[in-house]
Structure formats: C-alpha cells, structure tokens
Amino acid sequence: MRAGDAVRPRGPAQRVLAANTWAVYVFLYAPILLLIVFSFNDNRIVGVWNTASLRWYREMLDNAAVLNALRNSLIVALASTAVSTVIGTAAALALERFRFPGRRVYDGLVYLPVIIPDVTMAVMMLLFFVEAFVIVQAVLGISPSLGIPTITLSHIAFNISFVAIVVRARLAGLDPALEEAAADLYASRWQAFRRVTLPLIMPGVLGGALLALTLSLDDVVVTSFVAGPGSTTLPVYVFGLVRRGVTPLINAVSTVMLVASMLLVLGSLLIQRRSPDRA
Amino acid sequence: MASTVSTPPTGTPASGEAVDPALERAAERAAARRGALLALPGFVYLGLFFAVPLAIVFVYSFATRSSTGRTILGEWSLRSYGRLFDPLVGGIAWRSLWIAALATAICLLVGYPFAYFIATRSPRVRGLLLVGVMIPFWSNFLVRTYAWRLLLGSDGPLSQLTDLAGLGPSRLLFTPTAVLIGLVYGFLPFMVLPLYAAIERMDFGLVEAARDLYASGWKAFRHVTWPLSRPGVVAGSILVFIPSLGAYVTPEILGGSRTTMLGSFIVRQFLSARDWPFGSSLSFVVMAVMLLATMVYFRVGGKTL
Predict the structure, then answer these.
(1) Residue A21 is part of which domain span?
(2) Which of A106, B98, B135, B158 has the fewest CB atoms within 10 Å of its CB?
(3) ipTM of this predicted complex?
C-alpha cells in the first residue's frame, strides 16, 4: 500500500470532495469577479449592462468626498499600525519571555479585545470619549471633538492585541536558547535583541503589522461610532452610500479597495516566500 | 492559547554551576523588572483605552434615560436590564443565535471537506489552494458583502438566472437567507484556516494503521481523523460563531427590516433611539455571553488553537 492511499479517499468520495472544493472556490470568487466586471459598466442602472467604460472611475477621482475619506483611512491605518506594532510586539515579548507581577491579569487584558464583539468595542470607545471630553474640558478648558485622533486611538486599542497574538505565536516556536547563547557570547541585551531575537521574530512582526493594517482599513463599526463630521474613513463612507442604495460609483470605489487589499496580501506572501525561514 | 507558557526568565544563569542564591534572586528580580518595563506601554494603553471604557459601559448600563434621550448618571436603576426580558429583545436575540448557529454549522459542513481536500494534496498544490483562500480572507469585508447585494439584487444575475429557468425572479435580498449567505461567505475562511492547520499537522500514519486493521473509511474518519482534528473544529467554530452573533455590517447590507440582529439593534440604541443605558446593558450582556461561551467551548474542546 502506497503511503497516502488510506488518507486520500478514492472513487466517489474523492469526486465529492473535489467537487465541493471547486464549488467553494466559485462561491468565494464569483461575487468578487461580478463586482469587478460591473464596475466597468457604463450604465447608470447597476444591474443592466450596456457598454464598458471607465466612467465611474473618472467620477470617483473627481469626487472630493471619496478622496477625503481615502486620505483619512490611510492616515488612521498607517498611524494605528505603527503604534500598535511597537506596543503589541513589546507586550508579546513580555508575556512570552518574562515573569513579572500582574502577568496573568496582563494576559487577559491583551486577549480580551480580540474576543469582544465589534459593537461592544464601538460602544465602549464612544462612551469613553464622551466622558473623557467632559474631563478634558473641565481641566484644560478646551473642548475636543470626535475626529481622526479618536478613530486612531480606538484602532490602536484593538490592533495591539492582534499584533501581540501573532508575534507571540512566532516567539513560542523559537528556542530561547538562541538568545541565551548570544548572552553567553557577551552580547549586551540590546545586541542580543537586535541581532538575534528581532530578526527571528520579524516574520511575526510583519504579519502582525499586516493584520493591523487590514483590520484598520476594514473597520466600519468602531469607526462610525467615534468619527466626527468630515472625518469619515473610506469604509464608513462606502457603508453610508450602500445603505442609501446601490450606485455604479460604489462599484468603482469597491473594486479599487478590493484590488488594493489583494495586492497587499500577494505582496506580503511573496516577501514571506523569499525570506529563508518561514514559520 | 491563553495557557501559561513556562519559559525560564532569560536572566537565569546556566545550570550546573553553584550560584549564590542571593545573586540568583537579584537576577530574577532584574528580569521581572525588564519584563514589567516591556509590558508597561501595553498596560497603560489598554488600561486607559480598553479597561476604563469597559468600566464606563458597565456604569452606563445602570443609568437612566431622560424623556429627551439624555443619559442621567446618578439615578441608578436596573431598568435597562429589565428590558432585556422584553419579548422584542428576546425575539431578536433568538434570531441572532439561530442565524449565527446555522452559519457556523454550514461553514463547518462545507469547510471541513474543503480543508481536508486541501490538506491532503501535494505541498505545491496545497500552497496554491491555500493562497486561494487567503486572498478573499484578507480582502475588504464590507466590499465582499456588498458584492452579494449585486449578485442577489432583484435585477441581478441570480434573479435573471431563476427567471430564465421559469422560476420567476428570486427574492432573496433583504431576507434572513441573504444574511445567512453573507455570514457564511464572510466567515468561511475563519473556519477553513484552523481546520486546515489541524488536519495538516495530523499524523496520517494513524489513519493508515486504522485502515490496515480493517476499519472502514467511515470508521477510520469517525474514530481517528475527526478526534484528531477537533482543536481545529473548536477554534473554527468560535471564530465563526462570535462575529456572526454580533454581526452588524452583513445584516445591515443584506438583511431587511424584519431581519434585525443583535448588532444592529445595539447600534440603533446609540445612533437613532438614543437610549444609551439600554444599549450599554445590551452590549455588556452580549459580551459576557460570548466570553462565557468561548471559555466553556475551550474547556470542552481542549486548549490548543
């Protein structure tokens, strides 16, 4: 008996498995392809095809609200990813490599934001800023309002945990002896971290950063709670448009968002493929 | 996953030599200090922007609402929690549970054979098939859900297809079925990826051994493959069930007025009904239920993720 024969069912069972697999791929990609095709439809009525054109893409580029939302999205995503990657990586190192007082509480605090539903997180952030603004006004005499800073602060709050989990998974698979060997060879703590630990956990750090970037660019619920007038991000803007009805402009904007996120993933997969050791 | 990994602190000297216990303690204290220092930024940030907000929601849930929709702090009551037993709320909670459970079941039913098929290919094919799942997984969730609105719409391709087949235009959009399709579509990769991880690292020699001992294909699956892949089943089910239960975007885009789920209902308390205490108590209870369910599920299904 050849190895693997028992594992791969043969005959009808194998055919059912294969058919299921291809059906899932059709299910996963059909809506995406349909969206892309229809974004090139010239017709004002979304479902009816007349001729191919770039009309809605031109319209998108002339639309100040779309461009403003895109700019906000990028600012929030980049800022929140940078901050949460640093804090999240430090948290992962602390949890995985050290024993310190309050470690168990810290463990829970880092995991909770992952399990908590979006809607609860949104409610929490809104009420927090409402209360915080009252205090800030009483103490400093300035009246802050909801906007890009509040969105960024909220995104960092949920991104730290996701970065920490990804980096921690990578750290858990590493032999601490490597870092100890560096210390034995008279490397300073900083040198050991910089030359040994950091390069080894880099795939995890990059993976965590990519996840944070994606989550930030995806978020609708939390952002719509803590966004002020004029500070909406692209997903929140698109969500608002969709609720009012389907228009060809949404198709064009959506296609751009979709293609951008796909390129981001493909790029990161290629980078990971080229790095010598993969997780 | 939340289990404590006992790695010795990096400050401990190599074993085998006699070390002055006082020195050892000092090294341990130094390591604890460094650990705490690394943990500090996260502690401060999550304390201020997560723990404090959570506490505020809890406090708000006991507040009262004035007739104009303002939240009055100071007149504490349990009214918001009493309203949870309202039949309207019960109906919405029941519907959400049902739809989330159904979405999880469908994802498992479709995702398990799918993950199994991928995991049993040659490494090269496996990698390609996996990228095929990763791409939609990482793509924008809102946009992917929106695409179904095009597909299911009354003048969309699916409707035209059923019309041509003589069944008349399909009226799926704005029904619970549409929400279910959207949830399965959105969260299927969350099911497939942990399942794949569990099946892929399984020792298939055990399955072969079972077959050698004359177990039927079904018996081998039932007694060997399924128990070994259980951690993946548990992790995948949690990852699908929790976001489905609290879903907001999917029911808003694909559902109608009669398919309100918990997520939308909570949001409505804040953005239109202006009943913040009630919304706070709802979101607090939903969170507590989910946490409890996750803990019980992990207890039952083993700790590995």
Answers:
(1) 1-38
(2) B98
(3) 0.87
